[in-house]
Amino acid sequence: MRTIDIAAARRIALAAQGFAEAPVHSGPGRRQLRRVLHRTNLLQLDSVNVAVRAHYMPLFSRIGGYDRSLLDDAAWHPAPRRPRMLVEYWAHEASLIPLADWPLLRWRMRDYADTSRPRYRRLLERAPGLTDEVRTAVKESGPVSAAELEREIGGSKVGTGTWWNRSDTKHACELLFAAGELTTATRHGFQRHYDLVERVLPPEVLAQDPPEDEAVRELVSRAARALGIATEPDLRDYYRLSPERSRRAVSELVEQGELRPVAVEGWPDPVYMHRGARTPRSVGARALLCPFDPLIWFRPRAERLFGFRYRIEIYVPRQQREYGYYVFPFLLDDRIVARVDLKADRQAGVLRVPGAFAEPDVDRGRVAAELGVVLREMADWLGLDGVVVGEHGDLAAGLRSTA
């Protein structure tokens, strides 16, 4: 069995995620979006907007400054000359996925549609008929938000004169979304506007319904291509699969030759390398990574690959935070060399860096200089006038002189 050292494993992983690509010299467009999606397969959605919403950042990390309407149009505002490229569903958490991948998750939709599931059963017991009302209202009024639906059907009396619980209407929307009956047609202010899937997705996508084992195998294949080199739990996490489904698919892909068992120095678990993975001699990456970037979202893998222990501290009381509220790791070449707490202060028109911290054994002068460049690029991308560095962290002083 081939043994791969950890530095080579990092380069394989970075190349698989698109960090070894040649820079884009023309204005990034749909071609570059497709290129990134070919690498990552999905973009995780998250509502936190303290710096920039999570789905926008992986594109910036890989192709630099781009017009965010490029992604908005591809996901939520299609036009005849710019057809929809992406659709929302539960992939790795709530995610944007290519239209062609939606059928690969229909088995998951059927699981969610099972009325015996505790959450679904409790809703049906508490508010019988609500899901039918939501279906009808969306059919008549869609695209429509959950709040609009609450106003439309939340006042209709039921049985003994009780009223629908307004949060139940939102739960009904979420359950029908998970069951594949509704999807997000558009978003306004990051608020979902639901519509029937047949009015959003093209017929050729809706017509596909691959068998579960085939679909899961294809999802694991996509995860393996996106990761390059991975353990089975790494592959499983990418689309949040069950251990049983994932292990069976991995075994089948090994038999087919798509995955090749290898060993990585220091990794105790079996490792698999995608047959299309490449190992560049070097990687000259320079990128800030949002907490939900596919490169680092599975924290055990980030720790194995980069020796980088990372925990998001949004829900940690301020006085107990080690690094800050919303911290971005900084990738330089093939290592994570720093982490910075970021806040887009839109009222003041600046990108604030409350804290900046170097990782052990790095050239702090070079790290500060390179990080300063990327922070200025990020500020420009967000339409901010400059970067303001605070006092917190051992890299802050050096960064102030460069940013």
CA gyration radius, whole angstroms: 23 Å
Ends distance: 47 Å
Helicity range of the residues? 25-40%
Q: Helical stretch count? A: 16
Structural class: alpha+beta
Q: Quick one: how many beta strands? A: 16
Outline the structure in words.
- The protein contains 16 helices and 16 strands.
- Helix content is 39%, strand content 21%.
- The protein is α+β, with helices and mostly antiparallel strands.
- The strands form five sheets. Strands 12-13-14-15-16 form a five-stranded mixed beta sheet.
- Helix 7 (130-141) packs across helix 9 (166-178), helix 11 (212-227) crosses helix 12 and helix 12 packs across helix 13.
- Strand 13 (327-333) and strand 14 (335-345) form a beta hairpin.
Structure in a nutshell:
With 403 residues, this protein is of the alpha+beta class. The chain has helices at residues 6-16, 30-40, 57-63, 69-75, 106-113, 118-126, 130-141, 146-153, 166-178, 203-206, 212-227, 232-238, 243-255, 299-306, 364-381, 396-400, and strands at residues 3-4, 43-44, 86-91, 93-98, 157-158, 162-163, 182-188, 191-196, 229-231, 259-264, 271-274, 285-288, 327-333, 335-345, 350-358, 386-392.
Brief descriptors of the model:
alpha+beta, globular
Write the layout of secondary structure elements.
Layout: E1 3-4, H1 6-16, H2 30-40, E2 43-44, H3 57-63, H4 69-75, E3 86-91, E4 93-98, H5 106-113, H6 118-126, H7 130-141, H8 146-153, E5 157-158, E6 162-163, H9 166-178, E7 182-188, E8 191-196, H10 203-206, H11 212-227, E9 229-231, H12 232-238, H13 243-255, E10 259-264, E11 271-274, E12 285-288, H14 299-306, E13 327-333, E14 335-345, E15 350-358, H15 364-381, E16 386-392, H16 396-400
Helix pairs in contact: 7-9, 8-9, 11-12, 11-13, 12-13
